[in-house]
Amino acid sequence: MAPPLEQWRRWIAENLLLGNPPEAIRAVLVKNAFSEADAAREVNAALESPYVQGGSRIANRLRKREWTLTVYGRLARMRAGSGAIERRERPSRDEFFEEYYAQNRPVIITGMLKSWPALEKWSLDYFRERCGDREVEVQSGRESDENYEINGPQHKRVMRFREYLDLVETAGKSNDFYMTANNGSRNQDALDVLWSDIDPIDEYLDGNTRDKSFFWLGPAGTKTPYHHDLTNNFMAQVIGRKRVKLVPMHDTSYIYNNVHCYSEVDASAVDHARFPKMRNAQVHECVLEPGELLFIPIGWWHYVEGLDVTTTMSFTNFRVYNDFAENYTTYQHL
């Protein structure tokens, strides 16, 4: 069934505001059962609408902002080794906040977690022994939903931790279930005994680790699709390896942000025919090893894939300002 006329009119207005030529818009209308005269009349009416004309002024201002971001992108590409994520051995507090946090640059920090008992103790058997009978919350049924991350609340399931550990151990490669930060509030209490196995990262984080840290556990094959967070984040790898792809905040216009902080692009197999602008995005890639700490800057798009059974801790309680969500309002479709 053809879309109603009002839906076509919204489509015409949107495409005019995006800068698409009127003749191209008319051609699409004709291909969708509009007569030449009707197509011309609808496009001309939109062009003459004071609402569209006002919207065009706003769109032009936004294009100026987008140009500014492309300048940052070009300059970033000039930096030596710009496609790689730098690895640093325990940078000082001042070095980290000046060179990475304040400059919105990712970095992999090595050596900072070497005192963690978790690196030696944590295993699926250890989890069973310590808190196997606790009830935890996980994401389940993800493979049947293309938008499993956006629809995360619909996939929450409560179960015994040992039951979940059995699933992880026997699953092989799967993205159907995953314990993530979206399950954080319940699991911080259920798994509280594990927090004694991680030492505070006092060099960069404040003392509020208990309330702003999150436990991730899943089989090989788990995926977190391209998205950006509303905070700066640390990702501390404890068990197994994860492949991480990051796209800078200034390349947002290339990554097809369709709703809130999510992208339509499947980072595991980018369809460049459907998403041609992705060819312009600068993709930084790394494999995060146990004992490494990845800094993911605010606004950077990231995709994460478990290469093995993995356990990860993430943290947002930095010693400096990290409340970038306070003036974020674009939760709706873009």
- Helices and strands, in order, run as HHHHEHEHHEEHEHEEEEEEEEEE
Number of strands: 15
Q: What does the average pLDDT come to? A: 93
Assign the CATH topology of the largest domain: Jelly Rolls
What integer value in Å does the Rg equal? Answer: 23 Å
Name of the level-1 CATH class of the largest domain? Mainly Beta
By DSSP (H or I, 4+ residues per run), the number of helices equals 9
Structural class: alpha+beta
The CATH superfamily of the largest domain is known as Cupin
* Strand arrangement in the largest pleated sheet: 1-2-13-8-15-6
Which bin fits the share of residues in helices? 25-40%
Distance between the termini: 25 Å
Low-confidence stretches: none
Q: The biggest beta sheet, please?
A: 6 strands, mixed
Q: What form results from the Cα inertia axes?
A: globular
In the CATH hierarchy, the architecture of the largest domain is Sandwich
* Count of distinct structural domains: 2
- The percentage of residues in β strands lies in 15-25%
Protein name: JmjC domain-containing protein
Pfam family, one: Cupin_8
Domain JmjC: 183-334
Summarize this entry quickly.
This protein has 334 residues and is α+β, with helices and mostly antiparallel strands.
